[in-house]
Structures are given as structure tokens and as C-alpha cells.
Structures
1.
Amino acid sequence: MNGPGRFITLEGGEGTGKSTLIAGLQDALAARGHEVVVTREPGGTPLAEAVRNLALHPPEGETWSPLAHALLMNTSREDHLRNLIRPALARGAWVICDRFADSTRAYQSIDGVSLAQLMSIEAMVVGDTRPDLTLILDAAPDALAERRRQRNVSDVFEQKEAAFHERVRAAFLEIAENEPHRCAVIDALGSPETVLGAALATIDDRMEAS
Ligand code: TYD
């Protein structure tokens, strides 16, 4: 149970528009009079941001093993939950988190960590602080790549293999299928207004208004 607050997480592959949706949700929910706390993973607190840096940017020439990387994600999550997410929920805020435990399930299982191990670490770290709602932004990687090309954006998305993006997509869709009560899949290819409208409709549908 998350107390009086609401805990919403956003998930999806790179380039699906999570940041744009979060900005829209922040404004819309604040306009309804809620205290809205926007945060991200890995990160969100000073210690968790420090761990993020260590995880995503290891010393030159070094790489974390898949298990060590999964543990770092969870180390940052433990601090984030304890020092930011749980206190915010306890005082009644709506917490919107850009990526959360489903990203670990998706990315670290693709890296080769067993789902059983990931789920047992998740249970230990997340405990009862499960998202009330997880919005999964979904699109075919080809369509996202095309959209980026049209906008002349060249970034890491283009540099990773298409097969990797397909696996990330499939992993999130599998989570949604297994936990339909918590998760909602949103078509990421709509305009920012359409995506925001779909997200708000889902929030209204799944959660009490106050
Ligand atoms: P970020 O720049 O925030 O990516 P994005 O804009 O796609 O959200 O970098 C976060 C990266 O870390 C992203 O590639 C996903 C990955 N990640 C994991 O591998 N495991 C996790 O548990 C989380 C939260 C993120």
C-alpha cells in the first residue's frame, strides 16, 4: 500500500517519448491540485544519482557484469524509495517515476540475469511500494527510428541494433500481459496531445480521482 499518495511509473524503450509525456502529466495533475513529484531511475536522490553515474559510466575500459549492473540499479532504487518515493507517497503526493523496477526486469534479463534472481532482488528492495499504475509507451522500433530520421535526430537509439530494441519492446509487453491490473500499454506513435490524453484517461479509469 502506498498511503494517501499515488505511484505512477513510466516504462518503454528509448525514444518512445517518456519525457514529453511526463512533462504533460506533471502539468495536468498539478492543475488538478495534486502535489506532483517527478523523478527518474536510476537516480532521483543524491546517492542514487551517484550510483547512476557509476552504473552508466564506469571507469574507461571497464564494464559491469550483468549481475553487478542489476545490483547497482537496485542499490540506487533502495535509496530512492527510502529517501524520496516513500516519504512523498506518505504525505499524499503523486509520484511520477521515469523508469522503475520493470526496466530492471526488461533490460537486465536481456543482459542475461535470470528473471528469478531479478524478481527476488526486486521483492527485497521494492517490498510493498509497488506502482499503482505503470504506463508502458509502446511502438515498433522501426517506426520510432523513422520518426527520428524525419526529425533529423541522430542519437544512441540509431546506434543500437534493431534486434535489441525489439527485445526491449517484447519484454515490456510481456510484463504488461502478466500484470494487466497494474500496467497499461499506450501507443507511443500518437501526437504528444494524443499520448497525454490516453495516459490521463487511463489514470482516471484506474485510479480514484483524488
Ligand atoms: P536514460 O538516459 O535515462 O535512458 P532513457 O532516456 O531511455 O530513459 O538511461 C537509462 C538507461 O538505463 C536506459 O538505457 C535503460 C537503463 N536501465 C536499466 O538497464 N535498468 C534499470 O533498472 C533502469 C532503471 C534503467
2.
Amino acid sequence: MFVKIAGTGSVLPERVVDNFEIARMVDTSDEWIQTRTGIRTRHIAGKETVASMAAEAAKRAIEDAGISPEEIDLIIVSTVSAEQSLPCVACEVQKEIGAVRAAAFDLNSACSGFITGYQMAAGQMKAGLAKTALVIGSECLSNYVDWSDRGTCILFGDGAGAAILRADGAPEELEIPSVLHADGSKGDSLTCSLGHGKDKVPYDEYYRMDGRAIFKFAVRKVPEVIREVLSLSGHSVEEIDYFVLHQANRRIIEAIAKRLRQDEARFPMNIMDNGNISSACIPMLLDDMNRKGLLKPGMKLVLAGFGAGLTWGGFYLEW
Ligand code: UT7
């Protein structure tokens, strides 16, 4: 018995920014961005916030699952880009959707955040502490993008994705084929400071990234973690219908498919339209697939993410 996803939802800000608009801000081109990343457009928040998008994605997931908000025991929001540190976004979502029974907290493991949230919720279910959980990835990365840095501003976008998780069986029968890893010694590859230190000296509040280092790390570690997940679930790579991966760069996903010697068609992507939205990517892509009718009962999926920290991880999911 596994933890199942009973419903999904997602939301994007209204404003679309194409590569030509970015090329008017920094020395780059539509051709360079598309060739190196696969990205054509991204959505950038205007009035939308991390909390407002999280709540909207949550409402759509609740509707898709056909449950009432009072049934939710736990809300976990993954974000690296909230507008405020208190209250946490998960509590704002709890208030907005009326999930009056739910415990709520935020987590930060960057682009691996949805994978981490899934494992935390599944662990609570296995311990008998929750039956229904809402896990959300919501990001307004544009809050922390330096629009004069062509190494990062071409890549990031805003949006939110949510999933309702339910235990498909008694707690003691639950299997959780899920793996999380971290390597803090490589944390300098992607950083962002917040506000002021005790000395009131302003920190650099923008994302700073060694893109090449993260690219290499992802291409090496994601196939490894997929194999780890499969050894836990007892499946071969060939048995998996879809690999739902963090949408950081089309070339990273293509390289992972190649390393696993699998057809790229089983690695769905929405990076072309949305860019890299950190922890929102995976639940948003899952919601796209769900709404397009690509996911049929019994289908076998592996979801995997990687990002700042550095962190990486994955889990096996049966639809
Ligand atoms: O979500 C998890 C965290 N982030 C990631 O996963 C990001 C992973 N990394 C990447 O996606 C890629 O490394 C980038 C898209 C960020 C960069 O692509 P790249 O192919 O690794 O380019 P590069 O950094 O090796 O730079 C190649 C060249 C350099 O010029 P020289 O030194 O060869 O003359 C750069 O200065 O491209 C130049 N360059 C650009 N040119 C036009 C870098 N950024 C741009 C740009 N437009 N935006």
C-alpha cells in the first residue's frame, strides 16, 4: 500500500514575460535562452503572492480530490521566496481555505521541496498521525531575482502547485519508497540572503548561482536517486510510465533520460512555458498531466527533484 495523490491543482500569475522582454533588460537573446534552457516564456507575479497562489492551487486540488477542507490533517508549504517570514505561508493557506483541523508549517529544501513535503506527509501517515495531507510548492522567485544578472534572470518564474495526499490503507501497511539527500558542503552553488544581519548591514538579497556546477550535479545525482527509489519500490526503469522531474533546464532532463537510456517522451516537460519555479515545478507538472488526462489508474511514476542546499531526492508513486 502506498500514499496516493487524490487531487492536484496549480496556478500561474497572469503576466507572461517572453525571452524578448528579458533581452531588453540584459545582454542575452531568445535564441540563447531557448537553446541553452528550453525556456520560451515564464509568468511573473504582479499582485499575486506566495500565499495567494498557494491558497488558489490548494482550492483547485481540494476540488479535484472531491474532499472538504475540514478533512485535511496537515498542510505543508514548500517555499524559498515568501514575502514574509511570519506567519508561515501554510497558516495563511489554512485560514484561506478553512482547513480548521489541520496542522500547518513551511519547509525549505529549495527545488527538492515538494519531494521533501511528500516524504514528511507520508511519514506522518505511516506514524498514524495524519490521514489526509495537503502538500504545496509555491514560489514568487521574482521577489529575489536580480534583473541585471543574465545567469539567473532568464531562468526563473513564479507559480504554485498543490496535491492532496491520502493513505491508501492502514498506517502499518504503508510503504514509502522515497529518498532524500543533502550535501551542505556545496551550499555556495546557489545562495540568497534575507534582509539585514544583527549589525544592520544589508545583505545581498538576490539569487546567486553557479549554474554550471548545479547542472553537473543534477545530471549525476538525479539518475542515481531514481535508481535508489526504484530499488526500494522493486521496479525496473522500463516499468515506469513517467518520470516527473524538477524543471530546471531542458538539457538537464534530456541528459538524465540519456543516462537512464530511456525515451525522452516519458519525461514530460512544461519548462518551455513556465521556466524554473523551484519547488512548484513538480506539483504543477503533475497537475498539467492530470488535467490533460495523461495519468491513468495504476500508472507508475517516479518524481525527483534537486536544488539549492544542495538537496536532492525522489519517490515512487502509483496513480
Ligand atoms: O533549480 C535548481 C537550480 N538551478 C539550476 O538547476 C540551474 C542549472 N544550470 C543551468 O541551467 C545552466 O548552467 C544555465 C542555463 C544557468 C547556464 O547555461 P550553461 O550552458 O551552463 O552556460 P555557461 O554558464 O557555461 O555559460 C556559457 C557562456 C558563457 O560565455 P563564455 O564564457 O563561453 O564566453 C556565459 O557568459 O554563455 C554566456 N552566458 C550567456 N549568454 C547569453 C551566460 N548566460 C547567458 C545568457 N545569455 N543569459
